[in-house]
Amino acid sequence: MRKFLIRRFFYMILSVIAATIIVFMLSRLAGDPRLLYAKPGGYGITEEQFEAIGESLGLDRPLIVQYGIWLGRILKGDLGKSIVSERPVTRILGEKIGATLQLGVASWILATIIGVPLGVLSAVKRGAVFDYLGRGFALFGQALPNFWLAIMSVLIFAVGLGWLPSGTRGLQDGFPFSWQNLQYFVLPTATLAWGAAAGYLRITRSAMLEVLDSEYVTLARAKGVSHRMVIWKHAFRNALIPPLTVSTVLLTSLLTGAVVIETVFAWPGIGNLAVQAVDANDFPVLTAVVLLFVILWVVANFLTDIAYAVVDPRIKYS
Fold first, then answer.
1. Selection from 199, 192, 198 nearest residue 146 by Cα
2. CA distance 27 to 33
3. Nearest CA to 192 among 104, 292, 303?
């Protein structure tokens, strides 16, 4: 187990380094970075000024040296400055990451609360009405694109019925869990959680069906164990292994996949920041967001491997 974790940690570091190389090479293939720093009306800069910008960016050195300087700055926490606002990228990310974490964690909790119980109910009521309803929910949840759901929820609940705000995060003043603040979370959280809840439902249902058809559950029923005890003590505890182990990956997918939702609802998070950076050619900000997402995914996969070994003692790593 220890050797496996050390090897996986080593692979995680290599994956992050490979991601930095890919991001850096794509930045150079996109064109001369000096052109991005040319403000409107500033294309008439002199050759000396153009070369001075290149020296400040390290473009007068070999490509491998440029990468080393860029990576060294990242390791020191220096992600550069935004081209648009000329503010440190780390400060911009610090201001936006809180909103993305709130939306992602809230959607993950909602998806867990909805998906896992529905998956258990669908498996227990196999072939009944609840099972068909649950599978229908999972089918539509994974088939309907979230941007369409977001737009339709705005049209119905914000524009048509006027029940909820159409977007933004609100002022977030006063008590955090007051309706004045929570109402801004309802539409984006529900939209983002729909697909995740559908995934939870399918995983939980499949795991429950496999456990319910196992020999030890049949033996427990033959011994006269009550139906409720069989479901919750024997079947449910073992069926939770797959949902628990994929929960870290699912949470990461909600954090990194909220770009469309944040854009539709004008949510001031990292996803919306990435879209704005693409529109404005703000390369330092976009590079920082991509690296952050890559690191989140690599760490999530590493934690998932650990979770498999901790939750399921039957798994042995050699």
1. 192
2. 8
3. 104
Strand partners, 81: 88
- Other beta carbons within 10 angstroms of residue 301's beta carbon come to 16
In percent, how much of the chain has pLDDT > 70?
89
CB atoms within 10 A of CB 147: 14
Burial 191-200 (b: 16+ CB within 10 A, else e): bbbbbbbbbb
Confidence at residue 290, expressed as pLDDT on a 0 to 100 scale:
85
Q: Name the residue with tokens 């609840």.
A: 130
Decide: residue 145, CB within 10 A, 0-12 exposed, 13-18 middle, 19+ buried: exposed
Give the CB-side neighbour count of residue 252, counting CA atoms within 13 A: 18
CA–CA distance, 186 with 146 (Å, rounded to integer): 15
Residue 151 has pLDDT above 80, yes or no: yes
Q: Which two tokens stand for residue 305?
A: 């491997």
164 Rama sector, left if φ>0, alpha if ψ -120 to 50, beta otherwise: beta
The sign of the CA dihedral 178, 173, 161, 108 is negative
Torsions phi, psi of 81, nearest 5? -120, 150
Nearest CA among 24, 82, 28 for reference residue 54: 28
**Domains of the chain and any CATH numbers:** 2-75 (no CATH), 89-311 (1.10.3720.10)
CA 128 to chain CA centroid, nearest Å: 34
Cα–Cα–Cα angle for 79, 84, 85, rounded to 5 degrees: 75
Closest by CA position to 141, among listed 185, 89, 203, 97: 203
What is the spatial distance between Cα 231 and Cα 220, in angstroms, rounded to a whole number? 10
Token output for 78:
């220096």
Size of the chain in residues: 318
Question: How far, in Å, CA of 113 to CA of 115, rounded?
Answer: 6
Look-up: residue for tokens 């867990």? 112
Confidence (pLDDT) at 38: 58
Contact 239, 312 (CB under 8 A): no
